[in-house]
Amino acid sequence: MEIWINPACSKCRSAISLLDAEGAEYTVRRYLDDVPGADEIRAVLDRLNLEPWDITRTQEADAKELGLKDWAKDASTRERWITALAEHPRLIQRPIITADDGTALVARTEDAVREALSRNKG
Fold it and tell me: Which phi and psi angles does 105 have, rounded to 5°?
């Protein structure tokens, strides 16, 4: 299991604390330092079963600069969104946990972190 975090994010710190409390084995990826490329973002979106706009932090300054709120959310603009996430990783919702069963979750709640843990007990 891998968790994409921003250490400054309280939701990320909470998720890590819960994983530690449960004795989970996981790898931390500080995605602002180790930025995922477009292919990795596509793979995670497939695992999440979400679209790029579903994991975009639209209130970030970068989002406002790019004018994301005015971007269409459809198949024709999907790659544009993915490129924006790869070029501006602060826009990626966090934390994201990739589970050992091939799925992934945006783990912003304790329940979501527990769901990721349950998917790893396989």
Answer: -140, 150
**Residue 122: band (very low, low, confident or very high) from pLDDT cuts 50, 70, 90:** low
And the tokens for 68?
A: 């994301």
CA distance 72 to 68: 9
Tokens of 46: 């497939």
Evaluate if pTM is beyond 0.85. Answer: yes
Task: Quote the CA–CA distance of 111 and 72 in Å, as a whole number.
Answer: 31
Decide which of 3.40.30.10, 3.90.1150.10, 3.40.50.2300, 3.90.180.10 is the CATH code for 2-119: 3.40.30.10
Mean pLDDT, range 79-104, rounded to an integer: 96
Token pair recorded at residue 107: 């783990």
Domain residue spans of the chain: 2-119
